[in-house]
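Worked example (supplementary).
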Amino acid sequence: MSLVVHKYGGSSVANAERILHVAKRIVAARDTGQQVVAVVSAMGDTTDELISLAYEVARQPDPRELDLLLSTGEVVSCTLVAMALRSLGYASISLTGAQAGIRTDTIHGRAQIAGVDAHRLKRELDEGKLVIVAGFQGTNDDMDVTTLGRGGSDTTAVAVAATLGATRCEVYTDVAGIYTADPRIVPDARKLDEVSYEEMLELASYGAKMHPRSIELAAVYNVPVYVASSFVEEPGTLIHGEAKTMEHRIKVTGIAHERGVAKVTVRGVRDQPGVAASLFEPLAAQGISVDTIVQNTGVEQLSDISFTVESRDLDKATELVQKSLGSLQAHLVTEDSLAKVSIVGAGMQNAPGYAARMFRALSDAGVNIDMITTSEIRITCIVHESAVEHSVQSLHRAFQLAQETSGSSH
Amino acid sequence: MSLVVHKYGGSSVANAERILHVAKRIVAARDTGQQVVAVVSAMGDTTDELISLAYEVARQPDPRELDLLLSTGEVVSCTLVAMALRSLGYASISLTGAQAGIRTDTIHGRAQIAGVDAHRLKRELDEGKLVIVAGFQGTNDDMDVTTLGRGGSDTTAVAVAATLGATRCEVYTDVAGIYTADPRIVPDARKLDEVSYEEMLELASYGAKMHPRSIELAAVYNVPVYVASSFVEEPGTLIHGEAKTMEHRIKVTGIAHERGVAKVTVRGVRDQPGVAASLFEPLAAQGISVDTIVQNTGVEQLSDISFTVESRDLDKATELVQKSLGSLQAHLVTEDSLAKVSIVGAGMQNAPGYAARMFRALSDAGVNIDMITTSEIRITCIVHESAVEHSVQSLHRAFQLAQETSGSSH
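After joint prediction of all chains, the assembly is encoded as:
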């Protein structure tokens, strides 16, 4: 019997009515002859409410306690789904992260899955049960509950699918799939039938917001991920690594964007070994994620180094860089309210002209480009945040993504 | 270092403000040089809300799922108390029932504690931490979460106190101790300084509502239990087995009462072996608790058997007895809206005249007595529910319990 893993987000289990609807979806999959494991998130705003409660009793809630507190949200929803399934006449059992054998490291709040001990999962499946697993959580070696941080439940679902050899992992959410651009910005954005893991990693910032970590895990274990809506009955998007996605490509798949970007520029750095390390090591130590980095060497061996961070990290980053500059004769300039706009498509690197087309489109739209970076399958421009919508719309039009024939992935 | 176990009920941890207050109480105990383990119930009405949610998704929620669902309530409150303690600068850790080593049988909804594996509890205490334990829950051998049913958190507290050899178990609730009668009925009811386990078992139906199972456990392991309010600073009542309680007794300690009693009478049962068994075995099998049983043998070897059950069990009990009567030539009479009124006091059995005084007081008050039963330390009359308040008030007056000199336990 083949096995499928479902994952339902918080909005899909927000109340009793939605939970019964989810139960019916699981039953429908079962009735096609499949074994089903469903991973669920906490109901609606439960997690936010629990966090508020924690901050009411402590200015800085202890991470270990916060994890145990937050883990209850997913336990509540998974037991309710299991009850609903039983009330429909189907054998079912809910498992906490601990019971499902989700083993993690000990970093509370953003634990990584170390492995899945599938002993209990397999036993329950062998007994013919529909198994509902609490997402977002696991336990460390001390039996303490950990939570997986952002994208946690998606990651649980992919890890369980990989461990059990599921045919695919189906992620049900409140959007219908992956689009060529954010439909709220580009009304004629088109839903993609399929997309490669690599493209999805670049597109992850809009549409079905799947966290890159779950996509990376899916890519490593080659688990096909199907993203669709639990609210409407229409086809979603399959994220997978099939060769045909790569070969039949017409180059640009979609336009990604991300707001809340800030830039730090260090001017007049003497170009000597170890300078970059002395700047970035303190940031890494504080958990500040540095994104785009650009360095230009100018006159007299003096360099300008610019990099971007999330806006919310700007103050801390500025403080840390200021400290590092103590020994360097250089000065600091920061800029906030920036955004990233990217064109994404497999194989773009080997096809000339895409970068030029992108810059021309932005120029025609009157958008000033602050920084440029590229990867294998992406060209990104940093622009002012106020220009995001206009940029995305212009690029979507310039690369004719609204038409199936032009931006299609097959 | 001596160890004390605290227990805080749902009203004591109903919101952030109350939780911070509880944290301060725990800290105060710590600052007197004691180790503290605190067992907490779920916040306010959490358990009822979770039960409602379960009945929204399933007509008959699965007991195993319901237990896992309900267990989250105590996990939430114990993490919040631990966070509050840390915010006050005290090392603290919360433990779920599983983490605290509370091992139970597998009867979901009303599991019994099989034992406490105190390994983790001791380790955390040895590290100098204040340990907060989720009450009302444990795990069975399959790592499935069970709940302990009524009186569960009190029972957790007493079991932990017994296992760790605590000097005493302090149960904090919204009433200030054990009274000579329900203060809502008898305004001049007096709070007792101390009471024996045996008396407490009989008095358990009012005042600080401690479930008999926790008192029984305390008696077996000789754990002194101190019941007091977490809302006001005044002395509570010590429940213990000290000899002086027994010896200096002036006989009646208090008046207990219980509403919601129903009576089933089987008339004209031929007195032959096995009749009682055939009536009561089916009730036991369905988990219906039979309380008072009275049998009178009358003319021609025909007996009347009467027994009481909780009102909510009356329909089911009637149905089961009706079935059992199939082979017996007897008929059934039921009566609802009854209540029990008892006088309680150690050593009453050996002091004549108390029963007579009780019946006289009720008679003078115009209360009709339906049934009478007695135990070592209690005389109980079944009366009509409408006569409860009047009966309790009359008995409280008749035995002069409002005066320290007359009803005192020392």
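Two points are worth noting when inspecting this output. The interface with chain A takes residues 16, 19-20, 23, 50, 53-54, 56-62, 64-66, 68-69, 71-72, 75-76, 79-84, 86-87, 93-94, 96, 98-99, 120, 143-145 of chain B (CB under 8 Å). The CA atoms of residues 47 and 70 of chain B lie 6 Å apart.
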